[in-house]
TrEMBL record:
Protein name: UDP-glucose 6-dehydrogenase
E.C. no: 1.1.1.22
Pfam families: UDPG_MGDP_dh (PF00984), UDPG_MGDP_dh_C (PF03720), UDPG_MGDP_dh_N (PF03721)
Enzyme class at the top of the EC tree: oxidoreductase
Record field: catalytic activity: UDP-alpha-D-glucose + 2 NAD(+) + H2O = UDP-alpha-D-glucuronate + 2 NADH + 3 H(+)
């Protein structure tokens, strides 16, 4: 089957960039990205490309080339479903905040709504592609809904998890390590798989396109994220030991990373991993393991999250201890709020939890992030419901530049590894801070020796 019309439900961090790249690489395919959120769709259609709702290096160029040619953003969900031969589901699957599996299982209500909507609208056969990360066996639930509530048309369900990392989404989509497509072993299933393989084959070398059964594909996504997060928690666990023993975690990481069996990536000690995927996917894995009675398996993976929570809390505690056991009334500057550099995404960012701990100790926090808006920062803190919205507002200022953030501060906490931080006039920052001036580098991104020469008291992670 030759696909000419694709619809993607969900114009978020995954759906938006992924579809923009498919459209750019496949000018012969019409790609329509739909979302219920009108403001988001309006932003995707904004002529000013700096207003796109997702910040990703290179995304503006891709959108500007394809948008209006064969890439469209719309709120007309039904129409796009009806016209498409292939429908990607790329809606959010947050961790449940209620009921059975609260705090662990993925909340599938958005997925189910999508499935019901597709079933209601579809008048011709469709290939439905799961793009969102989903617990194993979700495809079968989608299939049941489609088959039982549909208009008698045929649905094939594929799992095609997205492995892009935020901040490098466009580069990852242009040259993915692999594209994974899971589908039914039946002839119809194999045809559906082939249709999606043909889409990717427009720019991805064939040997990098991997096909499996649906369950393997669904589980591979959770596993990949669990393995990556586990590496971060492993090096972070060692960072605490390094601090006690005089070893330097950067040196240890370098030494072990040169072992080709271990490899150098994902060994950077930090204040803790964030992002919408790692924690959610591991909790999901833990929940699935528990539901099969595999308690040792569940405990094993849960430890990755426990370590990550510990790392965030430890960072905040260390700031308090170093500032003479009290931060009450003290100004602490936060450089960075996003969960990593080159993105405006703040979901599960370590900054939120560190700020929360410090606010509970009555610190006054001044944040500067090159891409995150003030409303988002307050939203993130309010979401935790630790204190009233007005208390959060009183405790947190959002600065227009780093110099304002650090003016008269007792300490600086680096929470995101933005490259720009290295280029600041650190002498000027030092001159305008209270003394002694501390830097707590939660990302080991600054040059500690240089800062110490200026007069700062510098502490990185794991040294
Ligand atoms: C991750 C996976 O990498 C990607 O394949 C999947 O599709 C989605 O989840 P993402 O969350 O965008 O991507 O970012 P990633 O680069 O994996 O970083 C996650 C977190 O780990 C960030 O907070 C990052 O700062 C932290 N991290 C990463 C470390 O602290 N140390 C490291 O060495 C690497
Ligand atoms: P991700 O990081 O997985 O892309 P986001 O939260 O950034 O997640 O994006 C998911 C998008 O899906 C949101 O913009 C949300 O409005 C949209 N969405 C959720 N449910 C539906 C639905 N039933 N129909 C259309 N859009 C939906």
């Amino acid at each position: 089957m030759n696909i000419k019309n694709i619809c993607c439900i969900g114009a978020g961090y995954v759906g938006g960039p992924t579809m923009a790249v498919i459209a750019q690489k496949c000018p012969h395919i019409k790609v329509t990205v739909v979302d219920l959120n009108e403001a988001r769709i309006q932003a995707w259609n904004d002529l000013d490309l700096s207003k796109l709702p997702v910040y990703e290096p290179g995304l503006d160029a891709v959108v500007s080339e394809a948008r209006g040619r064969n890439l469209f953003f719309s709120t007309e969900v039904d129409k796009a479903i009806e016209e498409a031969e292939m429908i990607f589901i790329s809606v959010n699957t947050p961790t449940k905040t209620y009921g059975v599996g609260k705090g662990m299982a993925a909340d599938l209500k958005y997925i189910e709504l999508c499935a019901r909507q597709i079933a209601r609208v579809a008048k011709t056969d469709k290939i439905v592609v799961e793009k969102s990360t989903l617990p194993v066996r979700t495809a079968s639930a989608i299939k049941e809904i489609l088959d039982h509530t549909g208009n008698g048309v045929n649905f094939q369900i594929l799992s095609n998890p997205e492995f892009l990392a935020e901040g490098t989404a466009i580069a990852d989509l242009f040259a993915p390590d692999r594209v994974l497509i899971g589908g039914d072993t039946t002839t119809e299933g194999q045809h559906a798989i082939q249709a999606l393989v043909d889409v990717y084959a427009n720019w991805v070398p064939k040997e990098r396109i991997l096909t499996t059964n649906v369950w393997s594909s669904e589980l591979s996504k959770l596993t990949a994220n669990a393995f990556l997060a586990q590496r971060v928690s492993s090096i972070n666990a060692l960072s605490e030991l390094c601090e006690k023993t005089g070893a330097d975690v950067n040196e240890v990481a370098r030494a072990i990373g040169m072992d080709s069996r271990i490899g150098p990536k994902f060994l950077k000690a930090s204040v803790g991993f964030g992002g919408s995927c790692f924690q959610k996917d591991i909790l999901n894995l833990v929940y699935i393991a528990k539901s099969y009675g595999l308690h040792e398996v569940a405990d094993y993976w849960e430890q990755v999250i426990i370590m990550n929570d510990h790392q965030k809390r430890r960072f905040a505690k260390n700031i308090i201890k170093t500032l003479y056991n009290t931060v009450s009334g003290k100004k602490i500057a936060f450089l960075g709020w996003a969960f990593k550099k080159d993105t405006n995404d703040t979901r599960e960012s370590a900054a939120i939890y560190v700020a929360d701990d410090l606010l509970s100790e009555q610190a006054s926090i001044s944040v500067f992030d090159p891409k995150v808006e003030a409303t988002q920062i307050l939203f993130d803190l309010n979401y935790l419901e630790t204190r009233s919205e007005s208390d959060n507002k009183n405790g947190v200022q959002v600065a227009v530049d780093p110099y304002e953030a650090c003016h008269n501060a007792h300490a600086i906490a680096v929470l995101t590894e933005w490259d720009a931080f290295k280029t600041y006039d650190w002498q000027k920052i030092y001159d305008n801070m209270l003394k002694p001036a501390f830097v707590f580098d939660g990302r080991n991104v600054l040059n500690g020796e240089e800062l110490e020469r200026i007069g700062f008291v510098y502490q990185g992670i794991g040294s």
